[in-house]
Amino acid sequence: MNRYSCADAVSSILRLRRDRVTVRTPRTRLMHELAHRIRNHEPEEMSIPSEGLMLLKACDKEQEEEADWLAGVLLLPREALVHVRRQGMSDEDVIARYGVSKRMYAYRSSMTGVNRQFR
């Protein structure tokens, strides 16, 4: 397998998804795809058409869950969640500020124990 740098991975992701990526695309989706590259996940199917863009199909369930977990760790570390709770930021403000999905914010708040800590 070819090894890609992070810059290559981001470039591939943006080219692959350029028709769907907008300024409003949550960073969660982009970081999830980058997490697959960081962890060297092998997609179940891969093709490289004549344009040279790598097209990936879904990874297995375990790899998808790992990519979700890593994306969350990188985008919303526990320290950041504690900080925003201490600042009293609303959920909507946190989601907008960090560019994450509502699902990712809820998942990380629960998994890190921050919800329990700030009841």
Can you walk through the features of this model?
By secondary structure, the chain is mostly helical. The protein has 2 domains: 1-59, no CATH class; 76-119, no CATH class. Helix content is 59%, strand content 3%. The chain contains 7 helices and 2 strands, in the order H-H-E-E-H-H-H-H-H. Helix 1 crosses helix 2 and helix 2 packs across helix 3. The chain is elongated, with a radius of gyration of 16 Å. The N and C termini lie far apart (47 Å). Residues 1-9 and 14-18 have low confidence and may be disordered.
SSE blueprint:
Elements: H1 6-16, H2 27-38, E1 46-47, E2 55-56, H3 61-75, H4 78-87, H5 91-98, H6 102-111, H7 114-117
Antiparallel strand pairs: 1-2
Helix pairs in contact: 1-2, 2-3
Summarize it:
By secondary structure, the protein is mainly α. It is 59% helix and 3% strand. Strands 1-2 form a two-stranded antiparallel ribbon.
Keywords:
119 residues, mainly alpha, disordered N terminus, elongated
How many structural domains does the protein architecture include? 2
> Helicity, in percent?
55-70%
The radius of gyration is 16 Å
* Oligomeric grouping of the chains: single chain
pLDDT < 50 runs, ≥5 residues: 1-9, 14-18
